[in-house]
């Protein structure tokens, strides 16, 4: 346990003292603050519409600023935090010859990998909490709205989901750092996987859906084929962690959103009930809706780190 704490403390100090962390944190914080500031200004200019909103404080995080909201920005660029923190965590020490010196100390090998991962998770947690608190204070100053109890709990759930989402990319970067001896190769592999899972999976989902359930837009549309096409596209898109995270966070931040699906089949009675009852979804029900997405993100993070752990434990350390 002492070895784990020593590695954890050393890695945490390295993260907070590194220039790349300061630059990345400043960039992400600046864009998040600007987006939330512009959203707050827009909310201040529309106080009448804001008064009729049940959860106005959450709009600071879900409303689109200049280009995107804070939730959307973290979904797209949050993985860069995890990738930058650990893409050279193992292979740099192996190249510098410090890894074998570290293992020769009274420190177990698993304490090294566990300490590095936990230090990265702690850094991600501190970063996200700081950004959320500053944006909350910004909303209090600009708009003058105070968050309610349910809004605070929803932000807490949002933070938990975001931590696991970015921690997944942290585990990916550690895995590539263990697998590749070259630092440049591990960095390029991490970025390539991020681009593929975040952007090309959605494009591939459209191709797969159009191949299995083609929709001829020149003829009269077939509702069953259109729905099948949408369902296939949504299922394939769920292979992307960004899609899982986006659907989960948008549902938990927006209480009026009652499902993660883009198309919901409703009969006449369902349409009548939906038109009559437009109340926000309670927090417990929102968590039930996004529970499969949360479980998938947690499982992906743990599986990826477990693979890294096993490879590191059986890998030869001597140079």
What labels would you give this structure?
319 residues, 15 helices, globular
Fold and architecture overview:
With about 325 residues, the chain is mainly α. It has one domain (about 1-315). About 75% of the residues lie in helices and about 0% in strands. The protein has 15 helices and no strands. α6 packs antiparallel against α9 (about 110-140), α10 (about 150-180) packs across α11 (about 185-210) and α13 packs antiparallel against α15 (about 285-315). The longest helix is centred in the middle third of the chain and has 34 residues, at about 110-140. The radius of gyration is 22 Å and the shape is globular. The chain starts with a helix and ends in a 5-residue tail after the last helix. Mean pLDDT is about 80; it is low at about 265-275.
Summarize the structure.
This protein is an all-alpha fold and 319 residues long.
- According to DSSP, the number of beta strands is 0
Structural class: mainly alpha
Q: Distance between termini? A: 27 Å
Shape: globular
Overall number of domains: 1
Helix content: over 70%
Count, helices: 15
Question: Taking all residues together, what is the mean pLDDT?
Answer: 80
Order of helices and strands: HHHHHHHHHHHHHHH
Sequence-ordered SSE layout with sheet pairings:
Blueprint: H1 2-17, H2 19-45, H3 47-51, H4 59-62, H5 70-77, H6 79-86, H7 91-96, H8 98-104, H9 109-142, H10 149-179, H11 183-212, H12 223-237, H13 241-253, H14 268-276, H15 283-314
Helix pairs in contact: 1-9, 2-5, 2-6, 2-9, 5-13, 6-9, 6-10, 6-11, 9-10, 9-15, 10-11, 10-13, 10-15, 11-12, 13-15
